[in-house]
Design goal:
- The protein has about 400 residues and is of the alpha/beta class.
- It folds into 2 domains: about 220 residues, Rossmann fold, CATH 3.40.50; about 160 residues, Glycogen Phosphorylase B (Rossmann fold).
- The chain is about 35% helix and about 15% strand.
- The protein has 13 helices and 13 strands.
- It has a 7-stranded parallel beta sheet with strand order 3-2-1-4-5-6-7, with helices on both faces.
- α7 links the parallel β9 and β10.
- α1 crosses α13.
Length: about 400
């Protein structure tokens, strides 16, 4: 079966910038160049739109609401309604690229819906209490409105998981979360890393680096406290987000915030830093693998995706508590250790973009063939596409 014969839609949560989920979308488009892209909003700057490969994006009404392109998360109680308004009835295959609402897109019994799940909705499930506390909504009247909205979203999230025919997860960690939340198995397809764009540098400088969105669950605050306790160590922080102003106020003198910088500058920092460091419980952790593609060791919290991407004492060091003291101990241990950049680089290559495209294509092809067989067993045919039997004139 050739996937190019199918009419395909890819539904993505939202497109504010070129980030980790968008790198996955970029490779999906390369595998399925005929796919029509849908997203709740699209505000990707012109200088970052190359990954869309000239595709037009069909957006939801959120795009036209006040501050919809910039403060779209404020509309989260309405997102289930908006994602359900996409008319996908003419497609053979619908693929949702989802870490929030995309998997709730409505499909019919004659369509195959595959979900590449970056994560079940983090702030509605196991990270709810962390988000509420760190966002200042742990108590008060507004807190109860938010809790009620999240309760509704959890019910919607579980219900819409039944509309997905097959799940794929970006790590074994996320596959376990899918099983926990949706009671569904998921095939693990690690996200794509453009390892070919990175090179080992032998010229290391005297600083550590992290690249992160400035949002609560990334736990950049832990890194600030840790480096405040290590005034002789330097930390460079790359990234932007709603928490950036507050974090900048907390930063000690040996921490430098660069905000959002071009990809070339990120690459340069990953290649020349002593180590990449992060304290988040990541679903996968794309940038940490990019750092390893530069031969750069990674100091990472041992839960989540980093348990699968960082080999303790080989490509980096794990710390086991999300505390400043644990980070300090890991940094001190790192300073007493040696690492082979070539070994680190070789480890990263198992997460390449070519590997993702191959595994993703195989998963989609296999799933659609199984779907066609299942439809035939039921005496049914897809409504559209190359496998529909011709309608014969009545005798």
């Amino acid at each position: 079966m050739d996937l190019k014969d199918l009419k395909i839609a890819i539904v993505h949560d939202w497109l504010p910038l070129y980030g980790g989920a968008e790198r996955v979308l970029e490779q999906m488009i390369k595998v399925l160049p005929q796919a029509q892209i849908y997203s709740l909003i699209d505000s990707v700057p012109e200088n970052q739109r190359g990954f869309l490969q000239g595709r037009k994006v069909i957006t939801s009404p959120v795009q036209h609401l006040p501050f919809g392109k910039t403060r779209y998360r404020a509309y989260f109680p309405l997102m289930p309604l908006f994602i359900e308004q996409f008319d996908l009835s003419s497609y053979d295959l619908v693929i949702s690229s989802s870490y929030s609402f995309a998997k709730g897109a409505i499909t019919g019994p004659h369509q195959l819906h595959l979900c590449y799940c970056h994560s079940p909705i983090r702030y509605a499930w196991d990270l709810q209490h962390q988000y509420m506390t760190q966002s200042g909504f742990a108590s008060g009247v507004r807190s109860w409105f938010i809790r009620a909205a999240l309760h509704y979203i959890r019910m919607w999230d579980v219900r819409t998981s039944n509309g997905v025919d097959q799940f794929a997860a970006n790590s074994s960690y996320v596959a376990r979360r899918i099983e926990k939340v949706y009671q569904r198995p998921a095939e693990v397809i690690y996200p794509p890393i453009s390892t070919e764009k990175f090179a080992i540098s032998r010229d290391r400088e005297d600083y550590y680096v992290t690249v992160s969105r400035m949002v609560p669950y990334k736990r950049v605050d832990i890194l600030l406290d840790a480096f405040a306790a290590m005034p002789n160590r330097k930390l460079t922080i790359i990234g932007s987000g709603p928490d950036l102003p507050a974090l900048q106020k907390l930063a000690p003198p040996n921490v430098t915030f660069l905000g959002h910088v071009p990809d070339d500058a990120v690459k340069k920092h990953l290649e020349t830093a002593r180590a990449f460091i992060f304290a988040a419980e990541e679903d996968f952790g794309i940038v940490s693998v990019e750092a390893q593609a530069c031969g750069t060791p990674v100091i990472a919290y041992s839960r989540g995706g980093s348990a699968e991407t960082v080999v303790d004492r080989v490509t980096g060091i794990h710390f086991h508590q999300q505390t400043p003291n644990a980070v300090v101990a890991a940094v001190e241990q790192f300073e007493r250790s040696t690492y082979d950049p070539d070994v680190i680089r070789a480890h990263s290559e198992q997460f390449s973009s070519a590997r993702f495209r191959r595994e993703f294509s195989q998963w989609v092809t296999r799933s659609y063939l199984d779907f066609i067989v299942g439809q035939s067993d039921l005496g049914q045919e897809p409504l559209v596409g190359p496998y529909r039997k011709p309608v014969l004139p009545s005798q």
